[in-house]
Design a protein that fits this description.
Belongs to the small GTPase superfamily. Rab family. InterPro entries: P-loop_NTPase (IPR027417), Small_GTP-bd (IPR005225), Small_GTPase (IPR001806), Small_GTPase_Rab (IPR050305). Helix content is about 35%, strand content about 20%. It starts with 13 loop residues before the first strand and ends in a 7-residue tail after the last strand. It is α/β, with parallel strands linked by helices. The protein has one domain: P-loop containing nucleotide triphosphate hydrolases (Rossmann fold, 3-Layer(aba) Sandwich), CATH 3.40.50.300. It contains 7 helices and 8 strands; from the N terminus they run E-H-E-E-E-H-E-H-H-E-H-E-H-H-E. Helix 5 links the parallel strand 6 and strand 7. The structure holds guanosine-5'-triphosphate.
Amino acid sequence: MAGQGQGGAGRPALLVKIVMAGESCVGKTSIVRRYTEPGSPPAGDPTSSYLATIGIDFKVKPVTFNDTRVKLQIWDTAGQERFHTLSTSYFRGAQGFVLVYDITNLDSFQSITSWMKDIHEKAGDEVDVILLGNKCDKESERAVPKQKGEKLAWEHGIPFFETSAKDNVNIEDAFSVLTKEILEKLEKISVWSYRAHTAVTSFSMLLKQVVVQWSIGGKNTLACAGH
Ligand SMILES: Nc1nc2c(ncn2[C@@H]2O[C@H](COP(=O)(O)OP(=O)(O)OP(=O)(O)O)[C@@H](O)[C@H]2O)c(=O)[nH]1
């Protein structure tokens, strides 16, 4: 297992970079918040207003897997079209992607193939991806049958979950499966070359994020379609 000798007790935790991708308003920020800040107000709560991501943001979640200490650095990209070039520029150097659509929004599902293309173009074919059909608490508004999500994931050979950031359905499991797949892959490469690689790409991503946040801010109150 990747853990033995890497990120074990007394050693620095392994840094793993995960990027959230998908159209605007599908729930990327809410999923990250639910996973990294369990005490925050639930998504879909009428008292929590929607704030579109502007540019890029990230959160860190420490986890332990089979004695391996891992620091998940989860980058939350903006889904709005005008940020597409900026968002996809963060894909490079990531080990994993959480690709999200909204089960009540057919367009967000139909765009998944294009997001998959962006991921493979920018991050290569070896990265791990999971597909999430979010907002499964809104069954009465469902526009994408579960079988369609399962079929698409099967065609791409990736795991699939229907999730609800609002009701905390499958969020933990989805990140666990992705982290496990990434660690299994890392097991096959040299830990030190991996550490050097992540140190360099992480530094450049952080630097870029500081510049972007400084120039355009973090979140704003622009509403996405349907809100
Ligand atoms: N009912 C329900 N609403 C959700 C869920 N997840 C997110 N929402 C709501 O959907 C809206 C958009 O959520 P965000 O998490 O900001 O979406 P996003 O994908 O990060 O959007 P961008 O920042 O524009 O890319 C907000 O009003 C959330 O409260 C969910 O699982 N169920």
